[in-house]
Amino acid sequence: MDRKNELAVRKKLNDVSPSFCLAKWYQVTIHLQNGQTHSCHHPHPHKVGMRELQENSTALHNTVWKKYQRYKMLKGERPAECDYCWKIEDSHADSISDRTFKSAEDWALPNFKEATTKPWDYDFTPRYVEVSFGHGCNFKCIYCAPHISSSIMAEFQRFGHYQESPEFDLDNLARTGQMPIPKDEWNPYVDAFWKWWPDLVPELKNFRITGGEPLINQNTFRFLDYIKSHPMPELIFGINSNLGIPDAQYDRFLDSMKYILDHKLIRHFEFYTSVDTHGVQAEYIRNGLSYKNYMTNVRKFLTTLPIDTKLVFMCTYNALSVPTFNEFLEDVVLLKKEFKNSQGEPRVILDMPYLRDPSYLSLAVLTDDFENMIKGSLTFMKDRSVEKLFQHWVFNDHEISKMERVYNWFVSLPKDGENVRKMRKNFFSFIREHDRRRGLNFRSCFPMMKGFYQICEDVYNNDSIDVG
Ligand code: SF4
To answer: What's the predicted TM-score (pTM) here?
Structure first.
């Protein structure tokens, strides 16, 4: 979307009210493991009450709470839960937030009339649905949480939460309605979802499955089987996977997707897979990962599915990604070169959201010494840019701008002060406990971060600031 269109959409929204956003009406992320919902994915999720669900079959999206936020938007009041957008809009008069970007999407803007003419408490049908069927996951990624991964839940049940992240205390999760329903127990939210499904389907434009790990959840296969007998030629389907699932399960997924794509039963397929750096360092971050098997599965995906199917690497760039990120980029370059679509473009794309929480694992904890490494990754990508090499298979502007954003953020961060000391103290105490629980050794896994780790240990030993 160009600037002119962005401004036109923003004006259209602002003519209703300066806080009006179609994502609140037409996009939903639902966490069926604990019955929470949010629109869009930026605000904190809130609970769908069991009574509400019994009375309203669309309550996984149309909760009383959400309807009230829509009411506020129509009246020009800013829902506090949308502060992600308000911060951006208040930073500069010209700043455009996701309120505009999301509202301009194909799943949102065509419904403008419906949203503005139907009553605020109407039960709207979402066009973009993201769902987690459960928290079952065989990985324990270092920055993940017990209500997202059953493996982390099991670890927390044994050892308790990390003192550096008290919000994940299991009692606190239970108190705040975030405790997942155990994965082998009957889940009324999953039932409610499938009951609602036939009403959802006719309007659905985008459907995305997250987790947990979706490829070990039977509901994912239920959806794939549904598509085989009920084609949805307008649907954009996306799924996230850790690609560390058993071979039989992976083959079953690839067979289904091949059938669906060969028979053009959906419009488009988006496959996202997570890895944050290279080799043993990636394995340390994403506990459960075998980097070698992971890359084998990436190749299997690219060789099995039709030539115009893409794979997006989701790299949650964090403090531990930095030292070996270039080696990962080298692997990406090889894949880009080897696997091209019918237009000669690479089938492998890099996306780099950067980690913000927990802050002690984010770039904010690092010392200045790491600037050259991050810059080195940016230079690596720029040296292999489309502009420089005039080749389709190298890094495009969008990928480079993501790395540039990471670098600029790092450079802008304070490198000392009380907050930074506290993060370094937390980094040391977290890693020490993490290694104890998992029988790992940070120093031997990250020899290039030994000096930094020593700094964190010294802060831990000398600092009188309380951890928390
Ligand atoms: S205003 Fe922003 S945070 Fe709120 S629903 Fe819209 S896009 Fe999401």
So the answer is: 0.93
